[in-house]
Structures are given as C-alpha cells and as structure tokens.
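For the sake of clarity, the format in which proteins appear in this thesis is described at this point. Each number in the token line that follows is a code from a learned vocabulary of backbone shapes. One such record is shown here in full, so that the layout can be seen directly:
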Amino acid sequence: MRKNTWWNRVLLCGVLAVATLATTEGTASAATQCFSQSYSDGANIVPGTGGGNVTRAITRQRAGNTWDDWVWRGTEFQCPRGRTCEYAWEKSKTTTTGWAIGGGTDLGNASSPSKKWYNTVVSFVGGYQKTTQLTTAFTWTVHLNGGDVAQPVQVAVRRWTQGDFAGGWVRTNRGCQGGTTYEWNGNVRFGDWTRNVFEKEKVGYAVNGRM
C-alpha cells in the first residue's frame, strides 16, 4: 500500500513538473519582447518580420475602373491636308514602368524620428517596388485623313488599390533591461498605402490625341 502511494506521488509530481515547464516556456517569450531604443526608435508599433510574428499588408479597396498611363509617346506625323496617308513608324521601343506610380505609404503608428521602418513596411505590399518592361515593335500601318496627326504610344493599364497593415509589436511603456517592452498583437491595424496595379499593356497609334 505504501509502495503504491509513493509511486502515485512520483507520477503526479512528474506530470506537474512537465506542465509547469511547458507553461513557462510557451508564453512570455512569444508574446513580449524587450526592444532597445536604438532598435525600436521609439515607434508605437514595430513591424514584425519573422519568428511567426509577421506584419501583413491588407487590401481594403480596389477601384472599379482602370486608368490609362501613357508611358511613352513617339514622334508625331501629320498627314498633309487635301490628301490621305498610309504611314508606319518602323520602330521598336522598350519602356520600364513602375507599379507604384502615383502611390504612397504612410507609416502611421509605426513612425519613428528616422522613419527607419519605411522600407520594411513597403516590402510587405506585393508589387509596390516592382517594375515592368513593355517592348513594342511599331511596324503596322495606320490610315490617316488629311490634317490628321498621329503618333505611336505605349499605355500601361492600371488599377488603384489601397490598404493598411495588420500585426505588430505594440509599445507598452513598461521598461525592461536596456529598453522598453513591446507586446505582439496580430490584429492591430496601422498606416496606409496606395499603389497602382499594372494589369495589361495597350499599344497603338494615337490619332488627333486619341488612341
């Protein structure tokens, strides 16, 4: 009887020891971090970049309509009045265009005196720093009436999108050894961004200012 009682106590103590070890290791280090001033730069929210704590760029809105960005216009040709013309440019053109033309990013609560988190946050927005090459060979013929003015053009068809960021280390204002304590909040929203998504290319001849 004593032997069984002693063995049960050993088993019980062993279970409690394992449970305590799992609890202490699985909470504090995952949910909080001590950031030095030089690392956080005093930001209210520090973006997460790894270890399961990753900030996400969230798209809130996409414009219903696209818009045309005329990225290149070639040499104009005017057909003399009183006659008709058949004209071809016989030209190849390569244009590099960015996806974030006209866009911008506001760090919001991730701001700091040095704006050190800008590049980190921008990298979360898919395609924000991307560029696209458009290559067109203008070899086909356009028919012009007398007085018409035409020129070859390349057009990037774009769509406005905008959103914000989700997930970050939130400043608690509680001191820690060598810095300030930050707690991870995967749902906190901050900042905003806008960009133009490149959707397709249109090429052709603009006649009298119209494609």
